[in-house]
Design brief:
Chain B: Its EC number is 3.6.1.3. Chain B: Keywords: ATP-binding, Hydrolase, Nucleotide-binding, Transport. Chain B: This is ABC transporter. The complex is a heterodimer of chains A (about 325) and B (about 250). Helices cover about 70% and strands about 0% of the residues of chain A. By secondary structure, chain A is mainly alpha-helical. The radius of gyration of chain B is 19 Å and the shape is globular. Chain B is an alpha/beta fold. In chain B, helix 3 runs parallel beside helix 6. Classes of the chains: A mainly alpha (about 325), B alpha/beta (about 250). The complex binds adenosine-5'-triphosphate and magnesium ion. The site of adenosine-5'-triphosphate (ATP) has 12 residues of chain B, from strand 2 and helix 1.
């Protein structure tokens, strides 16, 4: 089996150690609530950042409304679990699918056009989604939607792993290379037989799907979701994670998501400082490493000797 | 006839870049398209490959109208091209440049890729070995892992041709393939072009300002001036045509 090479086995081992370690600590009640919330948020933001990176980094498009898709996933999954009493897995999946459908419907007309229409459209979608949930009493309106906590560490962790594996496997395939070629040079990509619109829409839809999953995870953990949670500021934060890590680098997005979430957690008492520090961090990185912490490169385990899959990114 | 352009015209505002062009190219021919700067040569390629829509006229390739198709659809029909101003995927490796051009022949879906089904590994292995074999032909195999933009200019031009060949075309359009090459590289390129035509049952239409190359490899030549064909024929006929000498070659070329 090619999947079970040395590199993948080492990664699998590391993943199991992280999962088991945290799980054991939770069972032994060693993790205070403050930390468990943030562990959960790290999972949510890792999915959000890596999926936005697929759109903005890998495919070179410019979406600035990712929180809108998170909101769709959050509210849809909440409806399925609270109103329809569906199981958690079905709720999260439903959120992802509806989010993907909205992404597809928005992306198809927008991504055919040349130029950065996607930025304007996604900004609009983010706002519209908020307004719609704000004015819908069925989901609690402005006061918010109360959702029982059914997500635990196991759900959050493995859903994150699955999302990251999906993104990695997609990116490192001929379909991912097609997306990258569109980013690199759209005219040349078309001349090489690549339907650029198709791959932009595909990346955007897959990114929206995963953003929706992250929303479902969030909604079924946080007890309460409110439209304001999914504001432009949240979209901006996700974008900062991606840019900090390096547009186009999946591992960079993971690092960006972890760093930013931890930073926000420690500065949550001082929201004004959080904004200042985020801006400062962004400026410093842009000054000294304009392509982000990792550029388009990936952390890899090349030192293990065995040749891995050839890298597209 | 593999390619037939009938009354092809293209205007940009008031400028007629291509005017009432008629060209016929048979299977396996090696044809040149020459003319002074701004004559409309690249515009002909852009029309053929769907970058621009013709203002008037028809383009028949392999018996089918290719007018109105998007560039990627034209490529799927079997027309591939290189660019006058090199358009490689500069930040990607040499081999990835070639693999991207194999994309339409890949035999697995995005779904199979995500699940890493056996079809993924089979098709990826096949693409890898096909890409390496192609790079071998172009003497670029040793460069497979290098970033494309770091290659010397001449090798970048060769890589562009290799990449176009990976789409498995029937008609190859080369836009000034020798631009920026030294005489030795140009001689190598001439042999390569002949070799490609003979080995891949390829038909080639090439634009070139380097007359040694054009006269050396082309069996037939069209001369374009102000968007119109002013002469066509064998290299010998073109070399001695007074209209061509006046418009393009100049007296010293005789
Ligand atoms: N997109 C465009 N918009 C407006 N004018 C254009 C466009 N593309 C080409 N032209 C004009 O059409 C004419 C033909 O250009 P083209 O690039 O086809 O010339 P060419 O024969 O390839 O010249 P060269 O040998 O310099 O490459 C030129 O006058 C050029 O300025
Ligand atoms: Mg030109």
């Amino acid at each position: 089996m090619k999947v079970l090479n040395k590199k993948n086995l080492v990664i699998l081992l590391a993943v199991l150690v992280v999962y088991g370690g945290v799980q054991a600590a939770i069972a032994a009640r060693l993790i205070p609530p403050f930390y468990s919330v943030n562990l959960m948020l790290i999972c949510v933001y890792v999915i959000l950042a890596t999926s936005l990176n697929l759109i903005n980094g890998v495919t070179g498009q410019f979406s600035i409304g990712h929180a809108g898709f998170m909101a769709i996933g959050a509210y849809l999954s909440a409806i399925v679990s609270v109103k329809l009493h569906g199981p958690l897995g079905a709720a999260i999946l439903a959120g992802g699918i509806v989010s993907a459908a909205v992404g597809f419907l928005v992306g198809l007309p927008t991504l055919r056009l040349k130029g950065d229409y996607l930025a304007i459209t996604t900004l609009g979608v983010g706002q519209i989604v908020q307004v719609v949930f704000f004015n819908t009493n069925y989901v609690g309106g402005a006061a918010g939607f109360t959702v029982p906590r059914t997500v635990n560490w196991t759900w959050a962790f493995w859903l994150t792993v699955i999302s990251v594996v999906i993104i990695h496997n997609f990116t490192n395939s001929t379909h991912g290379r097609a997306c990258i070629s569109v980013r690199e040079n759209e005219i040349a990509a078309e001349a090489m037989g690549i339907n650029s619109t198709k791959y932009k829409v595909m990346a955007f839809t897959l990114g929206s799907f995963l953003g929706g999953l992250a929303g479902g995870l969030y909604a079924n953990y946080m007890y309460l979701i409110q439209p304001t949670t999914f504001s432009f500021l949240t979209s901006f934060n996700i974008l900062v994670m991606v840019v900090l890590g390096g547009l186009g680098s999946m591992t960079g997005s993971i690092v960006g998501a972890v760093v930013m979430t931890v930073l926000s957690a420690y500065l949550s008492q001082f929201p004004e400082w959080r904004m200042v520090l985020t801006a400062l961090l962004l400026i410093v990185v842009m000054l000294f490493r304009p392509s982000g912490l990792l550029g388009t490169k990936e952390f890899n385990l090349g030192f293990l000797g065995k040749k891995g899959e050839s890298r597209a990114a | 006839m593999l390619l037939k352009l009938e009354h092809l015209s293209k205007s940009f505002g008031g400028l007629k870049a291509v005017a009432d062009l008629n060209i016929e190219i048979g299977q396996g021919e090696l044809v040149g398209l020459i003319g002074p700067n701004g004559a409309g040569k690249t515009t002909v390629f852009n029309l053929l490959t769907g970058v621009y829509e013709p203002s008037e006229g028809k383009m028949i390739f392999a018996g089918k109208d290719v007018g109105g198709l998007r560039p990627y659809q034209v490529t799927h029909r079997g027309i591939a091209r290189t660019f006058q101003n090199i358009r490689l995927f500069g930040d990607l490796s040499v081999i990835d440049n070639v693999k991207i051009a194999f994309h339409q022949h890949a035999k697995y879906s995005a779904f199979s890729a995500i699940l890493r089904l056996p079809s993924f590994f089979r098709s990826e292995d096949e693409m890898e070995s096909k890409a390496l074999a192609l790079l071998e032909v172009f003497h670029l195999r040793g460069r497979a892992g290098e970033v494309a933009k770091n290659l010397p200019y001449g090798e970048q031009r060769r890589l562009e041709i290799a990449r176009a060949m990976a789409t498995e075309p029937r008609l190859l359009l080369l836009d000034e393939p020798a631009a920026g090459m030294n005489p030795q590289e140009t001689r190598g390129l001439m042999e390569l072009i002949r070799w490609l035509r003979d080995n891949f049952q390829l038909t080639i239409l090439l634009i070139e300002h380097d007359m040694s190359l054009v006269m050396g490899v082309c069996e037939r030549i069209y001369v374009l001036d102000y968007g119109m064909i002013i002469a066509s024929g064998t290299p010998e006929e073109i070399r001695t045509d007074p209209k061509v000498i006046e418009a393009y070659l100049g007296e010293e070329a005789i």
